[in-house]
Amino acid sequence: MGFLWFWLVAVMIVGYVVLDGFDLGVGALHLFLARNEAERRTTLGSIGPVWDGNEVWLLAGGGTLYFAFPLLYASAFSGFYLPLMIVLWLLVLRGVSVELRNHVDLGVWRSLLDGVFGFASALLAIFYGAALANVLRGVPLNAEGYFFLPLWTNWRPGVWPGILDWYTGIGGLVALTALTLHGALWLTLKASGALEARARRVVAPLLLAVAALTVISLFATIAVRPASLDNYFNAPLTFVVPVGVVAALAAIGLWNRKGQALKAFLASCAYLFFMLAGACWSVYPVLLPATSGAANDITIARAISGPHTLQVGLAWWSFGMTLAIAYIVFVYSRFRGKADAAAESH
Predict the structure, then answer these.
(1) Which helix (H) or strand (E) holds 261?
(2) pLDDT tens-digit profile of 123-159?
(3) How many CB atoms lie under 10 A from the CB of residue 220?
(4) Separation of alpha carbons 118 and 263, rounded Å
(5) Could you tell me if 111 and 162 are in contact, meaning their C-beta atoms sit under 8 angstroms apart?
(6) In this structure, is residue 79 part of a structural domain?
(7) Is residue 86 in a domain?
(8) CA 301, CA 140: separation in Å to the nearest integer?
(9) Do the beta carbons of residue 24 and residue 54 sit within 8 Å?
(10) Can you tell me the distance from the alpha carbon of 285 to that of 299, in angstroms, rounded to the nearest whole number?
């Protein structure tokens, strides 16, 4: 059951990143690609019907983590208390700015809210990438499974690191560029005219940045956590994951040049899937590594709930995910096609 629940949680994280990732990318590009109010309405209209539903996957992932791995939930949510509060405020700022700008008819306030939306979206992507890098690097867990991290110390990984260091900074940059690319590809799919053309033009430089940062992050991860490749060498077939990363990046470039927006966007989804799956596999069966020694690692066996909890939870999880997937299929099919910038249909 531990193996199953590890990957169920991983699937929910991947689902959140793939679905809400383009929302964040569109937000980060909002100020730079949209040149007038009609184009700004188009960018927001492209995510308007789906962005709040996408965030449900974040809540569902946290709930799943709570009943499947309660020790991990208790440890992570206490040790990462400060960045979690920052993330919550950024989520609030995104939601408030998107909703209020449609009820304010003054240009200066709309400009301010657009800026807040872009800033919060970009910063959220950075914090998500830094959070994943913290998990890969490890945290200073004690024997009881608890830890505390300051926002930063000397910017170097070690036994007593901060939330932000050079390695987690790289993770934040990878997330920002990858999700911005994801958002640009979403706009090539949903926008039209000059906005679509500008979105298509920024894909190539963003793709180069993502490819370069992906390689840098790989070597940085090996330097910080040499054991991250052990699972791959123990199961050589799993090297299909890095091959999938390379193939997805190549497919993005190829299909974007050919103007096949949907295929390019799906290739971006595949890139995010392989990157996150590879990260999960690199630490399995550890859920949260300890920089204070392997004896303090939070592993699946140490954190897993009781058999009855997992059995009952699996039944409810299956029911809930069926509803969530049905809702996603309905919403995305209902709002397929290009976003309409007309004010009366916004």
Answers:
(1) helix 261-283
(2) 999 999 999 999 999 999 988 888 888 888 888 888 8
(3) 22
(4) 26
(5) no
(6) yes
(7) yes
(8) 19
(9) no
(10) 6
Tokens of 330: 């309905």
Token pair listed for 20:
């809400």
What percent of the chain has pLDDT above 90? 54
Give mean pLDDT, residues 180-209.
Answer: 94
Alpha carbons 172 and 130: distance in angstroms, whole number: 5
Of 84 and 185, the structure prediction assigns the larger pLDDT to 185
* Residues in contact with 111: Cβ distance below 8 Å, sequence separation at least 6, in sequence order: none
Q: How far apart are CA 105 and CA 214, in angstroms?
A: 42
Q: How far is CA 293 from CA 60, 139, 143, 290, in A?
A: 31, 10, 10, 6
Tell me which residue has tokens 């009881």. Answer: 144
Structure tokens at 193: 């005219």
Among candidate residues 148, 139, 145, 142, the one with its CA nearest the CA of residue 167: 139
Task: Decide: helix, strand or coil at residue 80.
Answer: coil
Contacts of 160 (CB under 8 A, 6+ apart): 140, 153, 291
Does residue 334 form part of some domain?
Answer: yes
Domain that holds residue 308: 22-200+284-345
Could you tell me which of 35, 34, 8, 67 has the C-alpha nearest to residue 304? Answer: 67
123 lies in some domain: yes
**What pLDDT, on a 0 to 100 scale, did the predictor assign at position 344?**
38
Q: For residue 288, give the H/E element and its range.
A: strand 286-288
Mean pLDDT of 50-74: 86
Residues present in the chain in total: 346
Taking Cα atoms as reference points, which of 131, 182, 171 lies closest to residue 27? Answer: 182
Over residues 253-304, the pLDDT tens digits come to 999 999 999 999 999 999 999 999 999 999 999 999 999 888 899 999 999 9
Q: Number of folded domains in the chain? A: 1
